[in-house]
Design goal:
By secondary structure, this protein is α/β, with parallel strands linked by helices. 59% of the residues lie in helices and 13% in strands. It has helices at residues 3-30, 32-39, 41-46, 57-64, 106-120, 166-169, 171-179, 183-197, 202-218, 223-237, 241-257, 265-292, 297-304, 308-318; strands at 54-55, 73-81, 87-95, 128-134, 145-150, 153-158, 161-163. The chain is globular and about 60 Å long.
Length: 319
């Protein structure tokens, strides 16, 4: 493969990752309490949800930017307070396998995320708790421990880890999935369906996408919750533009069926445009913080997905 084709392939891979990355982050930020309740109930029970939950994703990007930590990880850093009043940082990594190859260094990278977060916020004295979600289809890939032992020295980090595939493989987890009204059940079902049809034709993917979206409406979630879940489903299955148009018509029919006011196409487009603008602003804020941390421009461009010229223009106008 020549250099141009390799660069084009890398750009497409990064674009796919960026969509998954945004999809998972939006789900976690909108359904954080439900997310912990479904995947990490012990953690959920110790957190005081009456106090402010702070999402610190920008800070995590600057923490990890100087290392080649891979392109298939979505990261979320959250500051919470426990019921006893003490603060904690929860570092959640979603291992997103686009290429279907497990990462042998995943736990090493988990450790790097953990200690760098702790080091950056050490003055607060708040421990950093790491957890992971694995979305790949390799039944044997289950990294949950990082350790070093040598001549009396020992370092060990073990994390709570959830394998999405287990909701298909383990009867007790399958039962939980089928009986739960938690929005995360929709997320898991979408991931599992995607694993089933990832090599199928567009017509099959379209039908599965349509049924997953119908399920969102059937569960009786609020309008805002349905919008977040539908967007996640669309991102997961990634239909072509031709099928996206058909899907819009199907969503309109489903909304009429469930008597939910239909959001006109121009309203959807306006929302998408607003979200895109918001994402670009967030990327610019991230870039500025990373540059203040002394991170080089090329690395900032790679991490944020912004073009080098955009960053240079931002620097020029800010002086």
């Amino acid at each position: 493969m020549n250099t141009k084709k390799q660069d084009k392939t890398k750009k497409k891979t990064r674009a796919r990752h960026s969509k998954y990355d945004s999809a998972w982050k939006e789900v976690i930020e909108n359904f954080f309490k439900f997310f912990l309740e479904f995947f990490f109930p012990e953690m959920h029970d110790k957190i005081d949800f009456t106090r402010k939950i702070e999402f610190l994703n920008t800070g995590l990007r600057s923490i990890t930017a100087s290392s080649d930590l891979g392109d298939r990880v979505s990261d979320v850093l959250v500051k919470v307070y426990l019921k006893d009043g003490t603060p904690r940082y929860i570092c959640i990594l979603i291992h997103i396998e686009i290429q279907g190859q497990p990462r042998v260094d995943f736990m090493e990278r988990m450790y790097i995320f953990n200690y760098r977060t702790f080091d950056k916020r050490i003055e607060e004295g708040a421990p950093v708790i790491s957890a992971a979600i694995l979305t790949d289809d390799n039944e044997d890939y289950r990294p949950d421990e990082y350790s070093v032992r040598f001549c009396g020295f020992e370092l060990r980090m073990k994390i709570p880890m959830v394998k999405i595939l287990d909701y298909k493989l383990k009867p007790e987890m399958m039962e939980k999935l089928e009986t739960s009204n938690n929005p995360m059940a929709i997320v898991v079902k979408a991931q599992l369906k995607n694993l089933e049809v990832k090599k199928a034709d567009e017509d099959t993917k379209f039908e599965v996408t349509k049924e997953m979206i119908r399920l969102c409406y059937r569960q009786g979630y609020s309008r805002d919750d349905v919008n977040v879940l539908v967007k996640f489903i669309e991102w997961v299955f990634r239909l072509s533009k031709a099928f996206e148009k058909r899907l819009k018509e199907e969503i309109k029919k489903i909304e009429e069926e469930y008597k939910m006011p239909y959001l006109a196409s121009w309203e959807r487009d306006a929302i998408k445009k607003g979200m895109k603008q918001g994402m670009n602003k967030e990327k610019m804020r991230t870039a500025k913080e990373m540059l203040r941390e002394g991170i080089d421009l090329d690395t900032v461009a790679k991490i944020t997905g912004l073009a080098r010229k955009q960053i240079e223009k931002m620097l020029a106008t800010s002086h």
